[in-house]
Amino acid sequence: MKQRIAKVAQALVNAAKGNPMECILAAVAVGIGITSIYTTRYGEYRTFYYPMLFLLTNIANKLTVNHPSRWAYYAVSLLSLAAFVLFNVEPSGSYYVVAMGCVTLAYLSFPLYRDNERFAENVLNNAVALLFAGFVAGVVFLLTVSVKLSLHYLFDLQSSGKDIESIAVLIWLGFFPILFLAFNDNSLRLTLKNRFTEILFNYILTPAIIVYMLIFYAYFVKVALQWELPKGNVAYMVFGFGIAAYLLKMVSYLLSKDYFGWLYRNLSYFVLPALVLFWIGTIYRVNEYGFTEDRIYLLIGGAFLTVTSLVLISNKLGRYLYLSLGVIVVLSAFTYIPFMSAKTLGIKSQQHRFEKALATLGYTKLDGSVRFKPLANTPQNREVIGTLTSSFRYISNNADKDYTAKHLGVKDTYQLEDIITSANYAMANESSDRSYRVSSLVNPKSALDIQGYRTMVILKAYSKNGDYYQDNGVKLEIYHNSKVVFTANKDSLLKAQLAKAGVSLRDAQEDGTQLTEQQQRLLYQIEIPGGVALVNRYNVSEDPYKVEDVELYGILLR
Fold first, then answer.
1. pLDDT tens string 76-121
2. Residue 244 near residue 209, CB atoms below 8 Å
3. Cβ contacts of residue 129 below 8 Å, gap of 6+?
4. Of 438, 469, 472, the residue nearest 534 (C-alpha)
5. Which one of 26, 208, 336, 557 is most buried, by most CB atoms within 10 A?
6. Helices (DSSP H) in 155-292: which residue ranges?
């Protein structure tokens, strides 16, 4: 143990000597962090940029070590320090996330190993160094806080929460990054070809990927047989699955015992059905609802997975380095080049939807003097008004302040409602993009008839005894006197209730107050053994159809 501690200490010293500007940057970060804690005036946003500036400085260090152009390292470091001290701007959504992602990928790509095995080893060494540095820094933080609290308790010293915040800043902004560099030193690097890695890979992670892949196969067959569209979030699931699968393929290069070599050698073919689901679902939703910034990034992710599947078939082109650098270039282009950024393209697409919906109603331009004629409450008109409102809302939330007034002739949603008129606007209170729409079927309680029942019992939500109900996942359970008396799948339950009442989901949403008393009773009273359960509301997602939750308020017992 003593030798290991001495080894880590020596690696820390070497890290400080070999990365002087990174140490200065860490010291400045600690100073800014502690200053912001005690003044609340300085450093509010600076620390958000610290990780990427630290990594950029270290990339410059790696590129110029033992090189005549060593001055470039110090130049980049001074620029990073200047940006860190002077640049106090709130991070802006995708701009910040993409910048952080691209800098991280660039860091993992250096040195530029074209060989997949060496590239994988470098990436995993960085990941292991990060985990070990995080573990050690966490232990040091907890021990330091424990000592501080013990001293304050035993000797009645005054304390404040800011002291603990300062310790956190010192350790996580100052000590942790240098510790990461130390663990990345060759003297501390672990041998990745070991028994633990093989067990984790061959007996846990790969079987999990195979199970997930079989689930996609089964869903693919279901979609094909029923000739239906994939559910809305399948694209995100496929993307996550694809990334995980290709990361595991990268790990497989480092194993001495790879029992699933046949799988990873042919992974591109195994992933194909999942990619088909991805493209069908994504293209349908883009055609139906237009582009948004998120959908464009999702398409870029899908394109990346597709290209990865194709190039990894080839031993020549299948290089993780090329894929990593390609992602950096494409993401940067679609984020920072104004005319082709995902944000700009999303706004233009929604503007096109808005103008197309406007033309459908016979209008070419809007201004404060326009007022829509009364429209019949038909599905087509609801869809058009919904498109107008959802597209306008998206543009208003994502474009510059005066964009809607300049390009659409409407300055805000209040003016849009005046132009559409309240009666027409009421047809589209929610977005027409039903993939994000959750609506409520609320019981008007005008049809509660207690004749024929001997008593009414109040139901509590999520209790553990007495009379209560539990709404867990897809299942609704009702308990009376602590015993379960009714269980049902929520999706099937609402479909059955609607069928009994003789109404559609759309009718119940739009005209809930117009239902007859008989229809209200049949929809909002669930038959259970010995009586009926009383529903207060159903919350329903439309596309894909799913009952999010059912809210009950009582039982009528016969």
1. 999 999 999 888 887 877 899 999 999 999 999 988 888 988 898 8
2. yes
3. 180, 183, 184, 188, 189
4. 469
5. 26
6. 161-169, 176-183, 195-200, 206-226, 234-252, 261-265, 267-289
Q: What is the β-pairing status of strands 531-541 and 438-442?
A: antiparallel
Q: Which residues pair with 555 in a beta bridge?
A: 457, 533
SS3 191: coil
Structure tokens at 80: 């990073």
β-pairing, 483-489 vs 438-442, is unpaired
CA–CA distance, 317 with 321 (Å, rounded to integer): 10
Q: Which phi and psi (to 5°) does residue 371 adopt? A: -135, 130
For residue 98 the two structure tokens come to: 């993409």
Structure tokens at 72: 């470039």
Reference 395, options 380, 412, 417, 418; nearest CA is: 412
Report yes or no on whether pTM surpasses 0.85. Answer: no
Task: Return the amino acid letter for 226.
Answer: Q
Closest CA to 56 of 110, 133, 128, 114: 110
Q: How much is the pLDDT for 461?
A: 80
Kindly report the number of other CB atoms within 10 A of residue 257's CB atom.
Answer: 12
* 37 contacts 44 by C-beta, under 8 angstroms: no
